[in-house]
Structure formats: structure tokens, C-alpha cells
Design goal:
With 630 residues, the protein is α/β, with parallel strands linked by helices. The chain is 26% helix and 21% strand. Strand 22 and strand 23 form a beta hairpin. Helix 5 packs parallel to helix 8. The longest helix is centred in the N-terminal third of the chain and has 25 residues. It starts with 13 loop residues before the first helix and ends in a 12-residue tail after the last strand.
């Protein structure tokens, strides 16, 4: 036991000390007269408690003496670190921009938080390694668990440790606009939100086109693996590829899966093929089961935050139940707790003012970068002049440009003899017929092609020159007469049993112009007494006999019109369908493709294999005949 601490005085008075110290001489010294000693202090009262014990005195003496003792139990992870806490000090670099003074983590390795290791009595950095099999990242967590914040920290961490030449990000923001604040980063090529369906599809298509181009280039050059491809880029053998490691970032995978099914399929394809070519995906979700099974196996880096139901944990049910209900707290694959870093570099370990702090981070990175930014997402134009399309090549006609490659979309009437057009009012149906009429006139002489127009509203009259007209119908009677005349000229072309396969390929057993039947507003003439019904038996042999039918119809009542004999026969021949803006309530289109509300001229080119978004070309005025001069 420790008793009271008694302070003892061991020093002598000044007079006593002075009498004991005398100067040294060679002579005899007189004996010193002892100085009177002061009266002795009274003995301490043993019963008096001074409030200080021996243990306290010892502790006071040992304070700040020697190295601190090892801390066995560390405080819980409560205050989230910032990116500048987990990274070395940041300094501007003329070549790489704002970056840590020590990039010792390695390429595509970035710390995004702290891991609590209680059995080792330490805390370690949560480092994400995207250079190998962990190149795809999945972040799962319940509502308000910090998924979007952790995703932003990952993007910002890579932006701080890599230049815009090394990494590029293309983002889909379905999590409330959190990724929109990263638009200013020179590494970010674009951010698309839920209210921008076309831009969402275009963003995914852009990343997929990078992947396809790299696959083609690697096959041509005999390059195997991403490391070899990077070396070829550094050596200058691949100078046309301006991209480094490309990341498709999706905040809210479930929204992509539910509302953007074509884009989700492309994203899964990117995840399946991308790692070998430096194309990655980063996604967030409410639970792991939201991922398709084929996609789940591709996610090599999994960051699991607090889940709404621990049963959904992909790591351990019991450990997941112990994760604190605070944003940023999660579980590693080793069942260790972690706390994600905040996307800020001001050292403030708080979520207060996080949006402004992230904006400051983005500005700091952008201000210290003087090179090229990440290439922006190319989008379909709102209007495409017809003059920007390549010239028609006989029966091969360019209809517009597609979303995937922004390349011309061709329809070859020799391979697909017919075409259907579907859309609402003012969506571009008549313009499509005008475009086809212009292409026919521009690439054929009147001896090579004729046009039979069925136009009850008289909107195509100026677009079909007189020398190309086989007939111009504005009523059921005139349509019936013109169809009978066309039928009389087409029947002799039907191949008989004496026609050889070589003749079928050459199509040389008949002569005369090909016939293009352009029908606008088909719903006005469809019915039991359809004046075009006599052409139905010839539709399957249209490519052999030079019969091409293009039908434009309204979107309203599309399901009812699909039972029309002529339209049903055309669809049975796997005829493509240009679906302009259509009400989603009309049901699935060709190949179970869902209709969409689209701007004028925008369409889904639907085939049995699927659909792709295109922008059709706009015809400015009446067609000028040029083929007649040839």
C-alpha cells in the first residue's frame, strides 16, 4: 500500500555552509567557530494527510521519461480520415499535376481508408489494388451507409495519384448527384444522370467502343495483356490510343439494371472482357444480390459497408451485424472493420461541408494540370443534316449515325428488301421516307429505279420527281390501280423452276427498274379492304424481283396494326423497324424491344438481334434529281 508522502529537508543553512568553507593558507589556521545551528524542525504529524501519496509522487517523476508504453487497446474508429491523411503530402508536379511526394503505393494502388486490426494492436491503410484481378470494384451497403462517398474517395484518390493520361473516368450518377461534383476533374470524361437516358447509353457505349478498338488493335499487333499494351503505348507503337486505364463508374447499379437494360448488358460485357485491355468498372449497390451471377464473379475488389440486413453479407453474417451504423464503416474480406476516407484534402475529419471540400479538391487538381483532359463522351447530334451522310451506294442507303460508334447506319435493300418506320406525330416518319426517296433518286436513273408513293396527306409530292414516279396515290382507289399496275410488271419476274442459283445471285433473268413502294400514314389505308393486299404474296421474293416496300405508320395502336396482314408478313421476313418516339405503353416492339420517348429524328433501329439508338438524317427541302443526268 502507498502511504502519505513526507517531504524531508536535507539542505543546510547558509551560515553553517559558510563556516565549513575556509580559504587555504600556508600558515596555521585558527580553529573555526561553529555557527549556531538553527532550531530543528518539529517532527511531522503522522496523523496529518497532505493529500499526496508516494505513488503519486513517483508518477509525477516518471512523466515524459522514456518511450511511451505500447497501447494494447486502441480507441474505436470514429473520426473518418481524409484523403490527405492516408496519402503522403501533396505537392504540384509539372508533369503529373497535384500528386503525393511519394508515389510508393504503385500503379493503380490507392489508399481509401483505415483498417482496424485489434489482434495486431494497430491500424493500417485500406489500400485498393486495381492492377490485377481486383481491377473491378464493387461497393455494397444499405441506405445512408456511405457508398457514394467511398466511391468518390476512390475516384479522387486515383486522380491524386495518377495523371489524366494514366486514368480516365466515365460516370453514371444514379445516387443523388454526388458524382456530378467530380465533373471538373481533368480525369473525368463525362457524368450522366438518371434524367439523361440517351447520355447514359452513350457513356457506356463509349467505354465499350474503347474496349472493342483495343481488342482489334491487340489482335493486329500480337499484343497479349494490359502490361504489354501499356508498354506498346509508351514505346510509341500505339500512338492513336489516347486513353490509359479507363473506368466505367456506376453509382446505383440497380437503377441501371431496371431502367437502362441495354446499357446494363453492355456494362456486363465490359466487365467480362475489360481487364485484359485496361477497362474497369466501379459500381455501388444496396446488396450483392443485385448483381447478375455472371457479373458477381467478375468483381475482384469488394468493399462491404453496413448492410440493411446482415444476412445479405457476402463476407460473414455475424461480423456484418457488428459493423457500426455510421456512414463509412464497413467490413473487409478478412472480417476486419474499416472506415472509408472522406474525399477532401483540407484535413477536416468531418462530413460537414463535404460538398464544398470536394469542390476544393477538384479545383486544386484541375488548377495544377496543364495537359489534355480526358476525352469527352461523344453524343448523338440533336440534328443531323443529310449532307453529312455518305452518298448512297446503289440500293445501300445511309439512314443516319449510330450511338455506339457515331458511324453511318446503312440499310441495304438488296439484303433486306423492306423497311418499316414507326413513330408519334412530328417524330420524323415522313422525313425518313423523304430521305429514302432522295437516296434512290441520287443513286439511280429512272431506268434503274421507280417510286410508287402512297401519300394520303400529300407530303411527299415534291420529293419524288415526275420522271421517277410509277404512281402517286392519294386515295384508296388510286392506290389500288397503281398496285395493280405494279403487280402486272412484277409477276413475270418471279423466278420459276428453270432459274439456276447462279441466276438468282446475279438477278439477270429480268430487266427493268426496281420498284420502291413508299407508304406514309399506313394506318389510313389499313383494313379489310387494303388496296396493297395484292402485293403480299410477292413480299418474300422482293429482293429477287426488285420489290421494296417501306411503310411508315403511327405509334398509336401499334399493337393492333401489327395484326394487319401486310405488316405481319413484313415482320415475318425479319424486316428491320425504325422506331422513332413511341409511347412506352404500346408494348414491346420487334424483338421485345421496349419503345421510348425520344426527340425528333432519334430512333431505335430494331432487328431480331436487338436494337441500337440512331439519329436519322434531316432532309432540308425537296429532292433534286441527279440520277437522270447520268
Amino acid at each position: 500500500m502507498s502511504g502519505p508522502h513526507r517531504v524531508r529537508s536535507t539542505g543546510l543553512h547558509r551560515e553553517v555552509i559558510a563556516s565549513q568553507v575556509v580559504p587555504f593558507t600556508a600558515g596555521a589556521a585558527a580553529p573555526a567557530v561553529p555557527a549556531p545551528r538553527p532550531p530543528s524542525e518539529p517532527a511531522p504529524d503522522e496523523s496529518t494527510d497532505t493529500g499526496t501519496i508516494v505513488l503519486h509522487a513517483l508518477v509525477d517523476r516518471l512523466v515524459d521519461q522514456g518511450p511511451p508504453a505500447h497501447q494494447v487497446w486502441m480507441a474505436p474508429l470514429e473520426d473518418a480520415p481524409t484523403l490527405d491523411d492516408v496519402l503522403p503530402p501533396l505537392l504540384p508536379d509539372p508533369e503529373h499535376g497535384l500528386r503525393p511526394i511519394d508515389a510508393g503505393q504503385g500503379y493503380l494502388r490507392v489508399p481509401v481508408g483505415l483498417i482496424d486490426k485489434p489482434f495486431e494492436q494497430m491500424r493500417d491503410l485500406l489500400v485498393v489494388d486495381l492492377s490485377g484481378v481486383g481491377g473491378h470494384v464493387g461497393v455494397a451497403g444499405g441506405p445512408q451507409s456511405g457508398k457514394s462517398t467511398l466511391l468518390r474517395s476512390l475516384v479522387c484518390g486515383l486522380a491524386l495519384t495518377h495523371s489524366p493520361r494514366q486514368v480516365q473516368f466515365y460516370c453514371l450518377d444514379f445516387g443523388g448527384g454526388s458524382l456530378t461534383g467530380l465533373t471538373g476533374l481533368p480525369h473525368v470524361g463525362g457524368v450522366a444522370g438518371r434524367h439523361q437516358p440517351e447520355r447514359v447509353g452513350r457513356t457506356v457505349a463509349e467505354v465499350r467502343s474503347i474496349l472493342i478498338e483495343r481488342e482489334r488493335r491487340c489482335a493486329e499487333l500480337g499484343i497479349h495483356g494490359r502490361d504489354a499494351y501499356r508498354q506498346a503505348q509508351a514505346d510509341g507503337r500505339i500512338s492513336e490510343d489516347r486513353f490509359g486505364d479507363v473506368f466505367l463508374v456506376v453509382d446505383g447499379w440497380f437503377v441501371l439494371r431496371q431502367e437502362f437494360e441495354p446499357a446494363e448488358e453492355m456494362a456486363r460485357d465490359i466487365a467480362a472482357r475489360g481487364l485484359n485491355y485496361g477497362v474497369h468498372v466501379m459500381i455501388t449497390m444496396g446488396r450483392w444480390s443485385e448483381l447478375h451471377m455472371s457479373m458477381r464473379d467478375k468483381i475482384g475488389t469488394r468493399l462491404e459497408l453496413r448492410l440493411g440486413d446482415p444476412v445479405e453479407s457476402g463476407i460473414d453474417l455475424r461480423a456484418a451485424a457488428q459493423v457500426p451504423r455510421r456512414p463509412g464503416h464497413g467490413l473487409t474480406d478478412a472480417k476486419l472493420h474499416f472506415l472509408g476516407a472522406l474525399p477532401r484534402i483540407d484535413g477536416v475529419q468531418s462530413a460537414e461541408g463535404l460538398a464544398a471540400a470536394t469542390e476544393h479538391l477538384v479545383s486544386a487538381v484541375a488548377d495544377n494540370w496543364t495537359g489534355e483532359r480526358a476525352a469527352a463522351v461523344r453524343t448523338l447530334p440533336a440534328s443531323l443534316p443529310m449532307a453529312e451522310l455518305p452518298a448512297p451506294q446503289g440500293a445501300r442507303i445511309a439512314l443516319g449515325v449510330d450511338e455506339d460508334q457515331l458511324a453511318p447506319v446503312w440499310h441495304d435493300f438488296r439484303l433486306m428488301p423492306h423497311l418499316t418506320v414507326l413513330g408519334d406525330t412530328e417524330s420524323g416518319k415522313t422525313n425518313m421516307l423523304r430521305l429514302i426517296a432522295h437516296a434512290i433518286v441520287a443513286s439511280h436513273t429512272p431506268a434503274q429505279a421507280r417510286i410508287m408513293a402512297v401519300d394520303y396527306r400529300r407530303q411527299l409530292f415534291d420529293d419524288v420527281p415526275a420522271e421517277y414516279r410509277l404512281g402517286y396515290s392519294v386515295s384508296a382507289d388510286s392506290t389500288r390501280d397503281n398496285a395493280a399496275e405494279a403487280l402486272a410488271g412484277l409477276r413475270p419476274r418471279v423466278p420459276g423452276p428453270d432459274i439456276t442459283p447462279e441466276q438468282l445471285r446475279a438477278r439477270d433473268w429480268w430487266s427493268g427498274p426496281a420498284l420502291y413502294v413508299l407508304v406514309d400514314d399506313y394506318e389510313l389505308l389499313a383494313g379489310p379492304d387494303n388496296p396493297l393486299a395484292h402485293l403480299i404474296p410477292l413480299l418474300p421474293q422482293g429482293g429477287d424481283i426488285g420489290l421494296h416496300v417501306v411503310v411508315a405508320r403511327a405509334a398509336a395502336g401499334a399493337m393492333r396494326l401489327s395484326m394487319d396482314p401486310l405488316l405481319r408478313r413484313i415482320q415475318e421476313l425479319n424486316t428491320p423497324d425504325v422506331a422513332l418516339s413511341c409511347p412506352p405503353t404500346e408494348g414491346p416492339l420487334l424483338g421485345n424491344i421496349k419503345p421510348r420517348s425520344l426527340p425528333p429524328g432519334r430512333a431505335l433501329l430494331c432487328t431480331r438481334r436487338g436494337g441500337r439508338l440512331i439519329q436519322t438524317a434531316l432532309v432540308p427541302g425537296p429532292v433534286v434529281p441527279t440520277g437522270a443526268d447520268r
